[in-house]
Amino acid sequence: MKLAVYFPGVGYHCDKPLLYYARKIAAACGFDQHITLSYTTQIRDLLGNPANMKAAFLELYEQAESELDKTSVFSQQSGVASCCDEILFISKSVGTAIAARYAGEHSLPCRTRKTTSAVPRHSPLPAYPVYAACRDLCFSSPEWNRLYRNCRSLG
What we know:
single chain; alpha/beta; 3 strands
């Protein structure tokens, strides 16, 4: 079984274009199982407010972890490695930080082409490897922009 898991951003669900078409591409690449996550926060004023961003991240992470733990693939009783030939996490915005933390905390085997574990020292988000595909307001700062340029230069 090849499994793809989709982690949306705040205010962005898995049926919007980026994650919708990512599902189509994953299916065309042989991923036969898909888990689309949904989570929300009532915390506002996230951009430029590290305390609110961190609080929202923690709240959203708990929701995602709880939702994944209810699935047969990620439940405590199942051996993830034994039931899946491959697991692909596809994410947008804060969903990227959630996916990275989940993979790290649950010791999921990850293969990535381009990663970085550097997190700007003023970031409220934890340090986990991420793949930077495009600019994102959630990760907007001079340090994130430098990190983005470094990832882009990897090819």
